[in-house]
Recover the amino acids of this structure.
């Protein structure tokens, strides 16, 4: 019989920990929270210090019964939920249900699920940290006060099923405000003039920079075609001579190891993962994966963190690996230390592999494709973060024609350093290209270049992608690592925003709700106020702020806003957009609706008629199998886009890549578009027939070709 009971949240975590602890320990899973506020009522006694009313979560009765039975058979109970506020609250609820003495050292925490970390953590159990518990309670109660008191108002005044959340409302506001910026944006014209030179058969280009004024160069904009024509007239027949060559060496340091927000951003950029998917897979890697002879092993450290701190042991292991794998030159002169951003809780390490010796290539046969891709990203980022900087040779050349100055810049990698392994992505999806310049000397004359003037217009700010929104929320102090992914999911489920081409677009409903919140609950939807609340919650966690007083200070103004809204908020009628598609069941004209997966068609006769169907987007290509249908864009269960025949289910022809409207010249099957890397010229057209190897460069449509 076991002497000790250990309780964690999930069976996967229980399995991994149980392997390390041995026969004296029995490890059970609570399956997350066991108690929470009731769904059917507010569950907070506002008049009595905001006392929460906790009840057993439906479906957890059998779990609790088993835990109670086991607890009576052991000498001691250890609560080993995740090392954060939520985990501390789970432990506290379990301690209450199992009647564990609050002064007992029953809480065990660890940042990674490895044998050494588990063994060490059980040598140092502690009491439940009530500051952490109260911070979680305060957040939960805050969210309940906002959600359960504003949401009924929105139901009554706008539409049933709506909700308002403390963090989600601000996230929607950011998206709506960005959309308004885009609508109100007025593009401004500007021009560039590029000079195309050739020296010793090597071509390079230089852009017009400005005019020489005495010893200095005055940067000059080209606002219109008139300014361009003046420049072209000014340099016509001029001698082009190199006025100055500047050479320098630049060091480029690696990005720090991942924190929660940067992991979500980079996984979106490089792996095309949604934030929720990233966190789900990271949880699996943290809790443990069966890797064969070693059994179940936790592969990464805890994935909800805002700290870039790394343990000395992990740094030492990384140093040994880098020197062994790449050589001494690839390790920096001193150990890299990364400073956490201002306001970070710094409770845990950065996200890193539990051992750099668990190389991704060794784990291929044990991980799913997505697990391996995310693990490789985390592994490479961490190892690169400990490596030597890259060294680049840079060259800036000023070329004069009369007093007009054209500037060329070039760089090449002198020593790759960390870039051998990993380069951080960016929101534009473009990687930096090396720009080589030929050997050039001051005073050197150049042949007359070809001048290429181009008109441009300033662009509005881009819509938020998931990565950009997470980054913005983090910079503004809205939410915390554990809240980003669920917030993004919620605002889509409620129909406030849509993801179109991987960018957030507000719906009419989202814009109306934001305007109403601005009018009646300005604090709730205010970015700075929400960020200050997050700081107050951090203060509760650190034992510096009384959680009841914090709630009381918040509720005074909020209660006044509630009363005003109940009296003055007007009813809003949302006009449904009618389509030209008749319902095949009742004949009514179907209307457009918004769901969590985007727009769809629904019968306005609901609930009498429940007919609904997806909007089929034709791509202008006939089905090659049945020849009577058209290929349409569809979405699979996991939101993966594919192209199928609109005669389905009679015809089940599908393509997983976008058809380009052209048949293969060799076999007649549709050509599809494939990406071959990043950049503007990375697309290629290949035959969809797997037995045909034909491929070609994309061609312009006939209309565009004739225009040129």
């Amino acid at each position: 019989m076991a002497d000790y009971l250990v309780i964690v949240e999930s069976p996967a975590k229980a399995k991994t920990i149980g392997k390390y602890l041995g026969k004296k320990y029995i490890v059970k899973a609570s399956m997350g929270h066991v108690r929470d506020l009731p769904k059917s009522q507010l569950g907070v006694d506002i008049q009595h210090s905001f006392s929460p009313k906790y009840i057993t979560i439906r479906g957890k009765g059998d779990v609790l019964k088993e835990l109670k039975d086991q607890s009576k058979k052991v000498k001691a109970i250890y609560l080993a939920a995740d090392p954060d506020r939520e985990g501390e609250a789970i432990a506290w609820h379990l301690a209450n249900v199992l009647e564990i003495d609050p002064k007992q050292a029953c809480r065990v925490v660890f940042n990674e699920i490895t044998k050494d970390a588990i063994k060490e953590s059980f040598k140092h159990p502690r009491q439940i940290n009530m500051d952490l518990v109260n911070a979680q309670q305060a957040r939960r109660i805050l969210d309940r006060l906002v959600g359960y008191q504003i949401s009924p108002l929105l139901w009554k005044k706008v539409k049933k099923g709506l909700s308002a959340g403390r963090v989600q409302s601000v996230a929607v506001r950011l998206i709506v405000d960005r959309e308004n910026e885009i609508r109100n944006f007025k593009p401004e014209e500007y021009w560039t003039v590029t000079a195309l030179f050739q020296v010793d058969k090597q071509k390079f280009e230089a852009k017009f920079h400005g005019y020489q004024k005495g010893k200095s160069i005055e940067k000059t904009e080209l606002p219109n075609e008139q300014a361009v024509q003046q420049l072209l007239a000014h340099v016509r027949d001029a001698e082009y001579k190199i006025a100055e060559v500047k050479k320098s060496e630049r060091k480029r340091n690696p990005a720090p190891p991942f924190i929660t927000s940067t992991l979500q951003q980079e996984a979106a950029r490089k792996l095309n993962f949604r934030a929720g998917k990233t966190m789900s897979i990271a949880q699996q890697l943290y809790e443990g994966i069966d890797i064969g002879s070693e059994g179940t092993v936790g592969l990464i450290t805890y994935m909800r963190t805002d700290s870039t701190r790394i343990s000395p042991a992990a740094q030492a292991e990384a140093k040994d690996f880098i020197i062994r794998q790449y050589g001494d030159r690839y390790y920096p002169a001193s150990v890299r230390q990364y400073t956490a951003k201002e306001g970070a809780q710094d409770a845990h390490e950065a996200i890193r592999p539990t051992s750099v010796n668990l190389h991704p290539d060794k784990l291929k046969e044990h991980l799913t494709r997505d697990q391996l891709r995310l693990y490789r990203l985390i592994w490479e980022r961490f190892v690169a973060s400990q490596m030597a900087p890259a060294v680049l040779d840079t060259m800036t050349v000023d070329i004069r024609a009369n007093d007009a100055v054209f500037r060329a810049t070039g760089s090449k990698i002198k020593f790759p350093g960390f870039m051998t392994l990993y380069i951080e992505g960016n929101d534009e999806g473009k990687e930096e290209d090396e720009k080589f310049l030929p050997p050039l000397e001051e005073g050197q004359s150049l042949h007359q270049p070809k001048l290429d003037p181009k008109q441009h217009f300033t662009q509005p700010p881009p819509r938020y992608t998931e990565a950009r929104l997470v980054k913005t929320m983090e910079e503004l102090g809205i939410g915390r690592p554990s809240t980003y992914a669920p917030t993004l999911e919620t605002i889509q489920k409620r129909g406030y925003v849509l993801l179109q081409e991987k960018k957030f677009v507000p719906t009419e409903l989202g814009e109306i709700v934001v305007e109403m919140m601005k009018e009646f609950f300005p604090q709730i939807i205010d970015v700075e106020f929400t960020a200050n609340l997050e700081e107050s919650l951090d203060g509760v966690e650190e034992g510096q702020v009384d959680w009841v007083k914090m709630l009381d200070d918040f509720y005074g103004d909020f209660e006044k806003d509630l009363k005003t809204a109940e009296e003055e908020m007007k009813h809003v009628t949302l006009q449904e957009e009618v389509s030209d598609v008749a319902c095949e069941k009742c004949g009514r004209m179907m209307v457009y609706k918004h769901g969590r997966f985007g727009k769809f068609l629904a019968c306005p006769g609901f609930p009498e008629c429940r007919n609904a169907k997806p909007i089929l987007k034709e791509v202008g290509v006939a089905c090659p199998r049945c020849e009577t249908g058209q290929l349409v864009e569809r979405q699979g269960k996991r939101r993966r886009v594919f192209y199928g025949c609109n005669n389905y289910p009679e015809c089940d022809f599908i393509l997983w890549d976008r058809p380009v409207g052209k048949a293969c010249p060799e076999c007649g099957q549709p050509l599809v578009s494939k990406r071959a890397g990043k950049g503007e010229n990375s697309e290629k057209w290949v035959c969809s027939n797997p037995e045909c190897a034909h491929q070609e460069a994309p061609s312009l449509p006939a209309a565009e070709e004739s225009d040129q």
